[in-house]
Design brief:
Heat Shock Protein 90
């Protein structure tokens, strides 16, 4: 069941309960009003009769008794009342119980049954001049009062039902109009799920839905930007792979191929014989020189693919070896390396990531920085207060140069920066690059180190 249907059902049930509760309240008030009205009328009639009887006792005039009883009997047609005069000779003889007064109200039977009060009856007995016991019986007739209350109650109930129906219609319309954007939001989320990151949601009238729209659009924009960056990284990675393969193919052809050809030619000449011993020795020396050159080229190629010194001697030695080679090749830019801490137990992923980040940074210095000095700092930062945590220490790698620098926009556009971010994210670290035109570049990297 949808959210709109559930809300509509709950609101309908709420209004039905309100209608039932209001009806019970109205019917109860109607029943109380009828009871109080007929009870008050009966007591008031009894008080008038008591006054009349007391006047008859005081006056003592002949004929006054019959005249008064006649007047009282004429009140039988009074509104809300039924008055009967009963006479008996013996005090021991009781008058029969009067039958219940039938209700002839202009109202539905169910309403009469709900609000009809209990039988209200008052009796006043006295002795007349003929020594007979006379009893005046006063009973309340609620018919007229029920008719009046029914008219008022009917109007109230009709107004209340109309109000409830109108309220339900207004609420249904408001819910339908207010929740309509949810379908559009779900459509947008479905599009995001299927990779359509160009989807954008409009601004809605409700402030809450507008916030959702803004967050959705920001998420879609970030996802679209991330996908474009990943595509660029993938293309860059493929281009680098192809360039490396091309370089390796050239080196294999130019260096190893020519060397193997030279060795083959020298060996062939030796195999033909007829050479002097000194010439044979020169050929052997040539083979040795060419073999050494082949070994040097192969070692260089293997270092480019995977630095063996990193596996054999650890991260610090590998970085020192890289910096020494750098300073040898690039005499115009001096690289200084310093470290502080123990880096022997680092994971392989952390070691190769740090090595490649330094390698990429030095390459960027040559391509873009125009610097005369590069500083590499590697430190182990340990916090004694958190020794029981999973990551009680972290590595801090800082690479700075005194080059031309660049603006913040170029930081985010560079694929080298994106590649470093990918490496750092993979090992749970963080990276920040600070640079301004003319003030060089500072790369700050923090990598948490897990302790088993």
């Amino acid at each position: 069941m949808s959210l709109g249907a559930r809300l509509s059902l709950l609101i309908t049930l709420l209004f039905v309960l309100i209608l039932i509760g209001g009806s019970v309240f109205v019917f109860d008030n109607a029943r109380r009003a009828i009871h109080n009205e007929v009870h008050s009328a009966a007591r008031f009639t009894l008080q008038l009769i008591e006054i009349a009887l007391s006047t008859m006792d005081v006056s003592g005039q002949p004929g006054m008794e019959e005249q008064l009883l006649t007047r009282i009997s004429e009140l039988d047609t009074a509104r809300h009342m039924e008055i009967r005069i009963l006479k008996r000779m013996n005090i021991d003889n009781r008058f029969p119980v009067s039958p219940r007064i039938p209700v002839h109200a202009d109202a539905p039977d169910w309403f009469v049954g709900l609000v009809k009060p209990e039988v209200i009856e008052y009796r006043r007995a006295f002795n007349t001049s003929d020594n007979r016991i006379t009893e005046i019986v006063i009973r309340a007739d609620p018919s007229d009062e029920i008719t009046e209350v029914w008219q008022d109650t009917k109007n109230i109930i009709v107004m209340f039902v109309v109000f409830v129906i109108m309220s339900i219609v207004i609420v249904y319309y408001t819910l339908g109009h207010g929740l309509a954007p949810i379908a559009e939001i779900l459509k947008g989320l479905d599009g995001i799920e299927h990779g359509d990151y160009r989807l954008r949601l409009p601004h809605f009238k409700l402030a809450e839905l507008t916030k959702i729209s803004d967050k959705f659009n920001l998420m879609a924009e970030v996802l679209e930007k991330t996908r474009e960056e990943n595509r660029a990284l993938t293309q860059k990675s493929l281009a680098i792979q192809e360039r490396e393969r091309q370089n390796l193919a050239h080196e294999l052809h130019d260096e190893l191929g020519q060397s193997i050809t030279a060795i083959k030619a020298v060996a062939t000449s030796i195999g033909h014989g007829g050479q002097e011993v000194s010439s044979i020795r020169d050929s052997v020396d040539t083979i040795i020189d060419v073999s050494n050159h082949m070994y040097s080229v192969a070692r260089s190629m293997m270092r480019r693919l995977r630095p063996a010194v990193l596996d054999e001697f650890g991260l610090v030695t590998a970085l020192q070896d890289m910096v020494d080679d750098w300073n040898t090749v690039h005499e115009e830019v001096f690289c200084e390396f310093s470290f502080n801490g123990n880096f022997e137990q680092l994971d392989e992923d952390i070691k190769i990531s740090v090595y490649r980040i330094v390698q990429e940074s030095l390459t960027n210095v040559i391509k873009h920085a125009g610097a005369s000095k590069v500083t590499i700092e590697l430190d182990e930062i340990r916090n004694a207060e958190v020794e029981q945590e999973i990551f009680p220490c972290h590595l801090r790698l800082k690479i700075t140069d005194n080059g031309v620098g660049f603006s913040d926009r170029r930081i985010k556009r560079g694929l080298g920066f994106l590649g470093m971010c990918e490496r750092i994210d993979a090992i749970g670290g963080s990276i920040a690059i600070e640079s301004r035109p003319g003030q060089g570049v500072a790369i700050n990297i923090s990598i948490p180190v897990r302790v088993e």
